[in-house]
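Recall the central idea of this unit: under ordinary conditions, the amino acid sequence of a chain determines the structure it adopts. In this exercise we apply that idea directly, starting from the sequence alone.
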Amino acid sequence: MAEPPVTEPVPEPAPEAAPVAEPEPAPATAPVAKRPRGRTALLVLAAAVLGIAGGTAVGYDVQAGRAPTSLPALSQPGLAYPAKALPPDEAPDPLPASQDRRVRTDGDLRKLVIGRPAGWSDDDSSLLDLSDGWVAPDVYARSSYEKEGSMYEYFLECDIRRVAGAAWKRGQYRTAEIHLVQFGSGTVQGAQDFVEGQLAYMPGSEIGAGNIGDAIKGSGNGRYYLYEVDRKPGYLPSYHARATVYRGDIAADIHLYDTVPISKKDIRTLAERQLERL
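Accordingly, the structure predicted from this sequence is:
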């Protein structure tokens, strides 16, 4: 009798693993409201403005309630110096004319123009009418500067006072013109402003001399220049030299013209003589 076949035991299925619980997400943080920037500063500023306005209003109210205060008299005795006049034997002597510049500059301005050098004669052909030694400011601006209108307006703004001058000639073509321009003694330093304005454009070649020039010895503010020769077809060459300087309220402007070269010595000598006269 055959034995029944041996059957292998069937393994029991493994128990299923329990599902792992996923961690719950953390609750979202509620947003925090931010404090507006500058709010405190605006409050402080508003308080300050209100405080100033309130203080001003109170001040006006207090001032309006007060009795008006009388002003001091314009003329008050005792402000003069010295309080008492000195005896005649103790009063100082007035300055001599050699030391008191106002005595000279307030006099006849024509006397401060240097005398005509030897070998020169009066130039009656000058564009300026210098027969009496005076030049009207408008005539001086019109005959001496290209932008005559602007220059005359400038002179009026600087309180021009008067212009004295002289015109000479030597030989056939050499001529010289000297002008003393005096300004009023107001808030504007007219002579200084005028000379410094002229010196400022002189180094330019368009309307100036095209060089920095040389200092007038002993002046501290004046210079003299030699221009480049001006050549035009059909005409003789034109040479030009200029010097300008000021002393106090007087500006001196000197010009030399010729058809041959002008030396530095020629213009420097006239400038130094005129400066010494001032």
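The chain has a mean pLDDT of 82.
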